[in-house]
Design brief:
Layout: H1 2-18, H2 34-38, H3 57-91, H4 99-134, H5 140-168
Helix pairs in contact: 3-4, 3-5, 4-5
Signal peptide: 1-21
Keywords: Signal
Organism: Aurantiacibacter xanthus
């Protein structure tokens, strides 16, 4: 039985090798064809993009309200800054856990809470800015409101960093 299988493989070998034979004619040319020389270049239609639309009135109203809330929170931050500065100055050099240090930490946390409220409004402005940007609307008005809010938050960050460094020293 194994001899029959061996004879079958020997007989099928030349047939299988015949499939690998090269063609007797020439290979097709790889030179550029006539259609490739002329090209099929299509010119795109001339369109003038329309200017981006202004965001809807409710969106602009919401952006304005958010900036107003950041201004209000920033004013409260600035009003509380002097009291926190005096607490931090009183706690300077005090050991961690002392009464003066604890009062300064609590005052600093209250000021940080004010900053957090401003950050929430800034995050909402970011959301409005992204929504306007992805829908193809103008971001100029929302961007200006966002920049104003971001500058107030950055000023608050600088004050908090300064006061924290003073308390740690």
């Amino acid at each position: 039985m194994t001899a029959r299988i061996a004879i079958l493989f020997v007989a099928a070998g030349p047939l299988a090798l015949g499939a690998c034979a090269t063609p007797s004619g020439e290979y097709p040319s790889l030179a550029q064809r006539e259609i490739e020389r002329t090209g099929l270049v299509m010119t795109p239609p001339q369109t003038i993009p329309s200017p981006p639309q202004s965001p809807a009135a409710p969106v602009l109203t919401e952006a304005s309200e958010l900036v107003d809330s950041v201004r209000t929170v920033h004013a409260a931050f600035l009003a509380g800054e002097a009291a926190v500065r005096s607490r931090v100055a009183a706690a300077r050099g005090a050991t961690s856990g002392s009464e003066a240090w604890a009062l300064a930490e609590v005052a600093l946390a209250g000021l940080s809470s004010q900053r957090s409220r401003a950050m929430v409004a800034l995050a909402d402005l970011d959301r409005l800015y992204i929504a306007a940007s992805t829908s193809g609307e103008s971001t100029e008005t929302i961007g200006a409101a966002r920049s104003e809010a971001a500058s107030m938050v950055a000023a608050e960050d600088a004050v908090l960093s300064e006061l924290t460094a003073q308390l740690r020293s």
